[in-house]
Amino acid sequence: MQFHSADMDQIIVSLVNIVERFLRRYLPHDGRVCVALSGGLDSIVLLDIVDALKASLHLDLRALSPNADSWATFCAEICDARGIALTTAKVRVDTLSGAGIEGAARKARYAAFAEEGSPYVLLAQHADDQAETVLHQLLRGTGLKGLAGMGEVRVVSTAQILLRPLLHVSRADIEATARERGLKWIEDESNTDIGYMRNFLRHEIAPRLEGRFPHYRGSRQNTPVRLTKCSKRWRKLICGGMAQMLLRMRWICWPKRGKSMRYITGSFGKKYRRLPTPK
Prior knowledge:
The protein is an alpha/beta fold. The chain contains ten helices and six strands. The chain has a six-stranded mixed sheet, with helices on both faces. α5 (about 125-140) packs across α9 (about 215-250).
């Protein structure tokens, strides 16, 4: 996709404004924030934007690279040139955990984030990643929460929150911004391996969907947002005493209530975890 100069300027300004509004909304004044830096396109652009905004937002900017040695070296060079403190973490992926390679790798990264210690960690997932996530969850037969995809904010503990400022930005705009600003990044060779489900969806399925449904790029961003709102409303209803009422509804047989009750107990802690089985 080719962009004219005026269009390119508009894309960059829009992208920077999106990130700035996001950070002002969620980060405290003089807050410490860490960018999860893989060395790939998305995280490099995110680091570049946050670095440009850190003075006006009074941010204590850090970076974390949970990568292999060659990638960590590249990240170190990028951060050294910008005067950004970088923590390098060698993560170990437990391939026997039963969560799959992607799930195990995500768990290992989250452990590295927790060890780094910043209260806010910025992740560079974008709109294309969100679409792949939702499609993947749909094929797995997930529920409402899974179909909502990734959230902009994820509270992983009382000491740390994960934030995704680029979740409504397309990969095309991110790449165009990187090229215009002369940024360098590393291409992950595994991203072309369609043996991974996410890569298969990205390279084989998504282009066909976009070819058949021209408005796919726009509409795919609305669904997760709407489902997230529905999920939150559903939780509020349940939190208001719906759990006990659900147990007493004789016209819903107990086996069919299994998923609903698992959702309740997972969302609201121990309060509902020892509900009796109806006779």
